[in-house]
Amino acid sequence: MEIKAALNKIATGRDLSGEEMRGLMNSIMSGEATPSQLGAFLMGMRVKGETVVEIAAAVSIMRERMIPVEAPEGAIDIVGTGGDGAGTLNISTASAFVVASAGVPVAKHGNRALSSKSGSAEAIQALGVKIDSTPEEIARNIRETGLGFMFAPAHHPAMKHVGPTRVELGTRTMFNLLGPQSNPAGVRRYLLGVFAEEWVEPVAAALLANRAIKAWVVHGSDGLDEITITGPTHVAQIAGGSLTTFMISPEDVGLRTATLAELKGGDPQENAEALRALLEGAQGPYRDIVLFNSGAALLVADRVEDLRDGIALAAHQIDTGAAKATLDKLIAVSNGQA
């Protein structure tokens, strides 16, 4: 579909078909849209409201154009859209080490921070893990340590055509939703956090349309793009080819509640130190929220049969030193020292 024709359709509030969106995304990813056309498209889509069909089609093109990484069957991603503005400690990153240490391959797809001082890329790097690895090196990291980190810009080179316009717009666009669904390792299991409740079900439906086997799409009632411990979390679950929604709270699984202030992060070095302390057994709200998210990821990975079992296994992996051993091994392997 020609870009001008798409803009005219969007301007009148009409939705694009899957094929129209695929054609349009191919044009955008090929650099055929001018900055003004791209800006008009992104803001027009936001005002109109992106549909599940449009999101799923756009994700399919991003996946076709990405630089892939080989990962074992059953690999999972623990990822968030970012942009929740909370500036918390690195929750999904910490959870990745816990889950990988329990024998679940984790293909972690991440980027630099959107709204906090430290995104997953900054935290991983501050811990000493090499993040500018080749696809072959990342595949080796996953094989040998259970965990590999994929720096998003290195795997989605076509996004260079979109980046400057996104920065100039300075507001969330549909690309905030597309990136986390476009895992370079082609994982079909996700624990995926979104920045607004309105996107929980649509993103889950888009994952289902793109053949996810099992996933939780989550949004905390406090605004976190994680499973929170300050109150309830909205969940859309994909399992057995169907989508269901429910709420979960820390009290449901024997965890204490906390305030957002108790989960506040700092710069990458501070967050890395907190993450290492957590894996060394430090107690408190950071541990609790990582246990909650790790337990859910272990459930999505079918490593456990219920959430409480997942939380118990996550605690065991930390308390036995297994999660920290995974971190130390990834540092060594990613830097060619093992």
Automatic annotation (TrEMBL):
Any one GO MF annotation of this record: magnesium ion binding
Sites where the protein binds anthranilate 1: 80, 111
Record: residues binding 5-phospho-alpha-D-ribose 1-diphosphate: 80, 83-84, 88, 90-93, 108-116, 120
GO cellular component: cytosol
Cofactor: Mg(2+)
Pathway connected to this protein: Amino-acid biosynthesis; L-tryptophan biosynthesis; L-tryptophan from chorismate: step 2/5
Entry keywords, A to Z: Amino-acid biosynthesis, Aromatic amino acid biosynthesis, Glycosyltransferase, Magnesium, Metal-binding, Transferase, Tryptophan biosynthesis
Catalytic class of the enzyme: transferase
Binding positions (Mg(2+) 1): 92, 226
Entry's Gene Ontology BP terms: L-tryptophan biosynthetic process
EC number annotated for this UniProt entry: 2.4.2.18
Keyword Mitochondrion belongs to the record: no
Residues where anthranilate 2 binds: 166
Binding site for Mg(2+) 2: 225-226
InterPro entries reported in the protein's UniProt record: Anthranilate_Pribosyl_Tfrase, Glycosyl_Trfase_fam3, Glycosyl_Trfase_fam3_N_dom, Glycosyl_Trfase_fam3_N_dom_sf, Nuc_phospho_transferase
Family (UniProt): In the C-terminal section; belongs to the anthranilate phosphoribosyltransferase family.
Self-association state and partner proteins as the record states: Homodimer.
Function: Catalyzes the transfer of the phosphoribosyl group of 5-phosphorylribose-1-pyrophosphate (PRPP) to anthranilate to yield N-(5'-phosphoribosyl)-anthranilate (PRA).
Descriptive protein name: Anthranilate phosphoribosyltransferase
Organism, as annotated: Paradevosia tibetensis
Taxonomic lineage of the native organism: Bacteria, Pseudomonadati, Pseudomonadota, Alphaproteobacteria, Hyphomicrobiales
